[in-house]
UniProtKB/TrEMBL annotation:
InterPro entries: Cytidine_deaminase-like. This is Cytidine deaminase. It comes from the Bacteria. It comes from Microbispora oryzae. GO terms for molecular function: catalytic activity.
Length: 147
């Protein structure tokens, strides 16, 4: 299943539940191959080195349930300008998503409007994925990721 507005709305809904308007916050939602959606928020901590991205919980839920992620969205609230931004996955989350292959779709902001999303595959976001060097030029399989 592909990235769609329903997935973006799920992330926004969770963000609004967890952090009422007027507070900073964010959330993520992932689409599963079976059509399901998992959502999560990041773990904040005064020690920033132990904080987690909003996507992490949903990724771990999917992995725990042995379900396949096909799309991922992350959003955050821009308090200064009163808007919701689409956040592309950070480098670490791109690494985490690599487990599910190069065709996983992620939301990225439109070039002229950071509040609107476009879908890109993980391979498009990370065309020089390092793991290709260890899998004979192919995207590493889940089994190769699990070694
Ligand atoms: Zn991240």
């Amino acid at each position: 299943m592909k990235l769609d507005q329903t997935l973006v709305d799920a992330a926004v809904e969770l963000m609004n539940q967890r952090w009422p308007t007027g507070e900073p916050g964010g959330a993520a939602a992932v689409r599963l191959a079976d059509g399901g959606i998992l959502t999560s928020v990041g773990l904040d901590n005064m020690n920033g080195s132990v904080a987690l991205c909003h996507e992490t919980g949903a990724f771990i839920q999917a992995y725990t349930q042995d379900r396949t992620i096909t799309a991922s969205v992350c959003v955050c609230r821009d308090l200064e300008r009163g808007r919701i931004l689409i956040l592309p996955p950070c480098g670490v989350c791109q690494e985490r998503l690599a487990l599910w292959g190069p065709s996983v779709e992620v939301a990225v902001p439109q070039e002229d409007d950071a509040t609107r999303w476009e879908a890109r595959t993980l391979a498009e976001v990370n065309p020089y994925y390092w793991g290709l060097q260890f899998a004979e030029g192919q995207w590493p399989s889940e089994a190769q990721h699990s070694k």
